[in-house]
Fold this protein.
Amino acid sequence: RSSHALHRTPRTMALSKLTLAPARALMRQAARGMARKPIVGGNWKCNPATASSLDELVSNFDGCAQYLDKCDVYVCPSNLHVALVKDSFKPGIKVAPQNCNFTGCGAYTGEMSVDQIKDMGMSTVLIGHSERRGEFGLPTPKESNELMATKLQYILDQGLSCVFCIGEPLPIREKGVDAVLAECANQLEDIVPILKSLEDKSRVVIAYEPVWAIGTGVAATPEQAQETHKGIRDWIAKNVDQTTADEIRIQYGGSANAKNAPELSAFPDIDGFLVGGASLKPEIADIVAAISAAK
C-alpha cells in the first residue's frame, strides 16, 4: 500500500513549532484567499429516550446562532426525531440525518432516501460513522468503503452536502501514526474520483474520529489530532489535488468538549468538531464559540 502512504508530521517536531503553526498556516490561507469556514456538528446518535426531552436539547443550540457568520452549525438528531425538530432550531442551524440509503424511494424496508430528506427541506447528510462501520459491538453488517462512496455520490448527485466520517480503532492507533494515516487513506481511496470532480469542495466535510476516543472521555491530544489532520490533508493533496486539500474542511470528533475545544481549535488543520455527548448539553455553544474565536 506504499502508493497510498500518507506523509506525516515528524514525530520529533518540537512543540514550539506546533505552537507557531496555527498562525503561519492561517496567514498562508489568507494570502491565497482560501480560509476555510469552521463547522461544528452535534451528533445525538440514538438519543434522547423521550420526545419530551427534545425542546431542552434544541435550546442548547440557541447560543450557537450568534456565531453563524463565523461557523457553520448542524445537528444530527435520531431518525425518529428528525421531523419533530427540523424546524425548531434558530435560523441557519442545519439538521442532518445520520444516514441514508444509496438509491431512491421504493421497496427498501427500514431505509430513508435522499429524495425524502431533500423534500423535507434538509440539505446535509452524515454517513460513515464508526458505529455504522462495524463498531456497534453487535452482529450488524459493516458498511464498506465501497458503499460509503456509492452513498456519497448519490447524496451529491441529489444536490445535498455530506459529512463523511473516517477514523481508526485503538489497535491501529497503538501501532503509531503511520498505521493511523494508512487506515484513513484506506477509507478515503474510493471517494478520490468524487472529490476530484467536485467543484464546490465545501459540500463534503471529512469528520475524523478516532474510534477509541468516541464516548470514552479520552480525546486525542491536540498534537495527535493536528498530526493526523495534516496527514489526511497531505494525502488529499497528493491523491486528489492541492485545491481540494486547501479547501476541504476536516472536523475532529472523539470526546470533543468545551474544555478541550479552545486548544484543539488553535491548530491550522482542525476546521471544526463533530460532537457527541457534549452536543446534548449547553456546552455545545461554548465549543462553537471557541472555534469561532480561533479562526
Observations:
- The beta strands are 39-43, 72-76, 94-95, 124-127, 161-166, 204-208, 249-253, 272-275.
- The radius of gyration is 18 Å.
- The CA atoms of residues 25 and 284 lie 26 Å apart.
- Residues 1-21, 27-33 have pLDDT under 50 and may be disordered.
